[in-house]
Amino acid sequence: MTKHAFVFRNALLTISLAIGLIACGGGGGGESGESTNDSWTEVAPPSTKPGDFINARTSAALNTGSTVNLTLQDQTSLLKWALSTAEQQHYWQKNLLGSLYSNANHKIIQTSLQFTAHPSLNLYPTDLSTGIPFAMGDSVCDGSFAIQSGKGCGLGVVTKIGEGRVLAYGQEMFSSILNNNANFTQFTEVMNNSLRWLITGDAHQAVNKTLNVVVKGTSNVDVKNYLEKQLATTVNYPACNVLNPENICWKDIDLIVLGQGIEGEKFEKELIDKYLKAGKAIYFQGSYWDIQANTQKVLNAIGVQADMNWFRDERTLLMSNPANIEQRWERINQIDGTIKTLQYFIAPTSVTVGELNANNAMIQSMLTHSSALQRLNGQGLSAFSAENRNSILKALVLIADLWRPAVNYTGLNKNGDPLTFIQTYASDAWLDYKRSQTTAAVQGAGDYMPATAQNMPVSSNWETITVTIPQSGGVTAIGRASIPAKAVEIQIVDAQGANLAVQTSHIRTWGNPFGDGGYQRPMRPNSYSVKLNNQVANAFISPFGGPLMLNYNNATAGSTITLKIKGSAKYAHFDFTQPITDADIDAASASLQSRTFGWNTFKFVGGEIQQITPYALQAIGNTAPRDYINKIKTIIFDSNHIANGYNNMPLDNSTQQYCNTLGWDCTSTIHRAPNVQHFIGWIATCGFLCSGNPSDGATGLDIGWGWVHELGHNTVQGVLTMTFPSTENNKSTIGCGTECNNNILAGLSMLRKNEIYALDNNGNNFNHPRLYSNILDNRNTNLSGEALRLDMEKRLWQGDDNAKQAFHMQLAYNYTKLHQGKSQPDSQGVFEFMRLLNISERLYKKIDLSKASEVDKNKLGLGAFTANDLSRPDMIYVLSSKIMGYDLKEMFKLYGLPLTDIARASVGMLNLDEAPLNFYAQPLNRSNYLNEGVWMTIPVTGSVSKYPY
């Protein structure tokens, strides 16, 4: 058979369709697949070219990303242009795959390849329009990129970037085959085909010239020996450092070979971009599971993404199953899903839809393109940026813009008209936020955003805003809104060294279009995170709108970032991280009451709230908005932060004086709230309220139990987590862990809520009667010593959570009596103890007990310890004793807690009096009323009196 080459060029394509880079035989005559397992038939060239479907309007739209001058009839031209482009991609990619796994006579090569986990990487094309993962493991890959979800681990990739060609393997191939490694030798013929394709553009064309090769980061001896032995060529090594940006010798190089030993070089990604643009051939091979900075630069340039292989099961790194070309194609093929989807939209009755669910092939195809658009936006790029190599995306975004105005989420469901459903899904999936023009659904975005929001005025002049950055990385509201289909521009004035991106909303769930409730809102109404570039006006636009959020990393906690913004709107945003005036609150309240915008946000130190307007108004009810805000701040956030000892809540005089006496640092940056807790009132991920960050609920934010419970999950420290191995079997962990420890914080919030607002909720959270009944039953066993303690350990710490939670409250009550000398516990004393206990844990984590002086260790009662490895009972015992000013060993024994000799010795070094066994009894369900209890004294041995209530 003869070899020939085709090169298709189109000025509107952002990639060259390298048809001539495959081995093409005669015959063909259609895509018939493989009639047998030992040969294959080439795919025939498509009958059309993309240029056949372009007019002046669509050409301009593909360049600008704007549908302003398009008519609805232009959708057909765009669909056919995209289909023709997809068919060209199918043509060159499938033929290239066939040529790599066959000889010159189209006889299929059956081969195997086995990678080893540690000295290898898994590789995949960043963009499947420019490359294919031609070598893949047989088994489903654990932890691989979403682009290959459910498929094999990538072992080898070919990509076509600009005029250049790239061949990449995840492990060293030259040395492995030269050394006759059985895991690699059967792959030799495919390896040789891939090298011929890389060097000549044809998998079966001999390399009939001396090659000028440069090798960096791997063995040049192995490269030379392999190429000369296997490809029967001569290799010349000119003195040319292609990783030196100053070099001028690169133009004469035929092949650039790069390995992972390049980390000492000084170059940027743009250097590799330059070589590819000039048509150079680049070979990359991995040799180590970790990906460092220079390797990542190369991968970014050659269009390859990598997974690290340290924990990979080597069975997933094996390609061994015999396969024909059609089978290999199906394992990597995603373009055919695009072709089918486009064919459906052009002629709906000619394509079978299948069941509409998340696994539907057309739905999956649309999500693949959605992910590709998300990756572009994450890099600060648009589908219409010159750097985008997947030209199909441009047409899809424009088609979605044309369809979106007619979208109506009322009454839409999977059992209705499939074309309307799938068109709606496409208009929701094919989104590009990094531009200046899009369209909105005239009827609004369901319960995410009302149609009235589209008429909100936006700023026409630049305004400077400052954003408080609460931690080193996260998401935070900036106090401005994106209005549907109205462009926003953002300039970075001062990022304080942080990396910044912008997005709408910070939500983690938005319902399911395929669910019984129907297609009620956009498939993904919140935007992707779009990178903000320095020294430019960054364009951003959303068809659905929403509160604008900064997504940031590499930041300094507590810093203030300055931005300039234009085209955004003010909405109901309350920011208490900066000075806020009555006028600000009144303006935000008025915006909320108008119901024009779909959302409102609250920003506090350590916490942010985003909720839909109807839920907010429902939660506010007849309360003045200012009172509602104060209650949210006071009960949800302030109470939690006081108990945790965060430095945003000023110390009262009593606590400050005791910190001074102890010689403790109670206010520095180590006591800054470590996390920002986000709350979302709209849709719950699970049940009615669901924990996490963000936590979400199907209700508005209020001061009930649920929200403080969820905040407790994300702020609770170890000193409230009394967990330890069971003494009984030394294996199972028992005690007060998740769903118990966080409720200590939640219960404290309820205590303060009752004190301030006379609202009594969850008065049984601290179940003192149940705790005392454990003591009573324990003593009635007539056991003594360690047997008595062990019985109490099992009885209490494997029992009821509310009794376990009461243990920490009894410590706090004893603090008010023994240290403060109060006749009855009060809220100030309880919070002071909890505050100091949480502060002491952070101080404990800061000190290195292997190096610290005796004076510094004794400040925390840690004098006998030489390592920061205290058990939880030991840590709480030592720190509580130091805070209390009494040795609590008998009290911890009373409650069945195991202590080590070193912990007792450490407290003994403080020369403290032994604490008496006091118990503060409260009526059942009345734990929020501290004044209603009575003190009881418990003897060290023997029976105890009955509970007084």
Automatic annotation (TrEMBL):
Domain of life: Bacteria
Signal peptide: 1-25
Signal as UniProt keyword: yes
Record protein name field: Peptidase M60 domain-containing protein
NCBIfam families: ImpA_fam_HExGH
Alphabetical keyword list: Signal
PROSITE patterns: PEPTIDASE_M60 (PS51723), PROKAR_LIPOPROTEIN (PS51257)
Alphabetical list of SMART domains matching this protein: M60-like (SM01276)
Peptidase M60 domain residues: 473-816
